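Sequence, structure tokens reproduced for absentees:
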Amino acid sequence: MKVGIDMGTLAGGEAAKLDIEELLATRLLVQGNSGSGKSHLLRRLLEQSAPWVQQCIIDPEGDFVTLADKFGHVVVDGERTEAELAGIANRIRQHRVSCVLTLEGLEIDQQMRAAAAFLNGMFDADREFWYPVLVVVDEAQMFAPAVAGEVSDDARKASLGAMTNLMCRGRKRGLAGVIATQRLAKLAKNVAAEASNFLMGRTFLDIDMARAADLLGMDRRQAEMFRDLKRGSFVALGPALSRRPLPVTIGAVETSARSSSPKLMPLPDAPVDVEDLIFTPDPEEFNRPIARRPVREPKPTTDILAELSRAPAAVAAPQPETRPNLPEMDPGEREERLSAVLAEILSDPEAAFRSDAVLFQEFLVRVRMRRIPGTPMTLPEFRRRLAVTRSGVNAEMAETAEWQQALGLSGQVTDDLQGVFLLLARHALEKSPCPSDADIARAYGTHSTRRARRFLSYFEEQGLVVVHTDYSGKRIVAFPDLEAQTAPGDPNAPLSQQGVAAE
């Protein structure tokens, strides 16, 4: 059934129609700085499409709960356990009820976990309930950040994974993602890249204007137009909207948000005794309890694994006769033994494609079996050690000042990408051929060469590397801070026989 909803007016006064059926198949990305009218646009879209399709809104600020009064959306409070949220999401798909998941008042870590649990619950619904749902995520850069921020790694990965499933794999399950963001540069590329429809609003930063122009197929010199757009005006492109970029002015809405843009108001007349009013406390203030929202912090995986690694020692402490203390070992010998255990684990061809947590548990078990004394390594220390080992650096280079500088630079990327960064840095310092896409993918633990190319783009965006090709099409990766670059290498070459760790 073809349904075109009215989003507003085009430049010539003609109605701007959005094909809902096409939108369900091709997804939508909305971008605009704060105050550009993104929330107004989403509200118009939701109000116009409410009679035609089930809706689910991930609402970090509680602005869309007012849809419940007019259109009957069920309001789901995000302050629940992850199991509860997943169950509610599953039942919402079964009964085809529109809903608003409000995350207002939660810390950003809790918002990400709640959104991930809810989206995963919708994604994991049984096949018989794969009805079409419009899934709207406001402030999507919070739930699919381009880089790690102040939130915990577990929350970021869970939220990013759920958003990736929504945008990349959700179509076959009936989930159509509509994501809105203030800045394209803050949104994960693999999430933004899956949208085929775009509505670009007012933008001021050069990098965001350039990306918006690229997505719309416009000349970068035309990107300046995004600075001049008025509030509520967007440039539309996509199979559900228009085959060429067209300016759209979003129409009026029937409901309103609980919060709005600040308006100037006249100040009240100052009373004569203003100081007494301010500095004299109300007697009731001292009887009023200070109500604070409890913060439920999950126990980090690192602490759990560390406890597991210490468990045998804790059990053995009261019974020294059954578990005698291990003899002291020379630090150099201990280091050699730990390196041998790590090399033994990585010698398995499938080790590159196992998670760091699984490898860490295997490492701890082998260390105990070989009775290597000393404080067990933590998971962050193990990940760092794993990244250095996977880079293939030899003992001689590891002592150089250039390698120490490379280690410092690797701290600017996320933990999971440090092995890839150090692999490229080692090849640059050795002036050896640039690794192929397959070798880079293996260093990360994936078979996807497309993802490997995205890693290089990410490093380049961070200003850490410069990627270019020679006259024969071979790739060169240069490190400006190290004043070094790789020799030309074929990006399409097959995986090295020795593997990354053995290079």
Observations:
- The two ends are 58 Å apart (CA to CA).
- The chain is about 40% helix and 15% strand.
- Residues 311-324, 498-503 have pLDDT under 50 and may be disordered.
- The CA atoms of residues 420 and 443 lie 6 Å apart.
